Amino acid sequence: MGLIRMLRITQRAMLGVSLRDQIRNEEIRRRTKVTDIRVAQRVAKVKWQWAGHIARWTLGFQGVGVATRHM
Questions:
Q1: Contacts 24+ apart (CB under 8 A), 28-34
Q2: How far separated are the first and last CA of the chain, in Å rounded?
Q3: Cα–Cα distance between 8 and 25 in angstroms, integer?
Q4: Is the pTM of this model over 0.70?
Q5: What interhelical angle do 3-15 and 38-69 show, nearest 10?
Q6: Which of 8, 22, 47, 60 has the fewest CB atoms within 10 Å of its CB?
Q7: DSSP states of 30-45 as a string?
């Protein structure tokens, strides 16, 4: 389930609104005072970038340690 969909589900739950009420997403964001959903998209992108950074750093660090132990 995508981050945006989860955000919309959370906003609907905050207001006690179901999909059957047929309230537009813009109205839900206005009521919850969320100005722009692109903020959630940016947060998701930055989280993945950070995870990639840490994964590359960790792999690089282990690679150097393994290379020096065999010498």
A1: 34/7
A2: 47
A3: 8
A4: no
A5: 130
A6: 22
A7: HHHT---THHHHHHHH
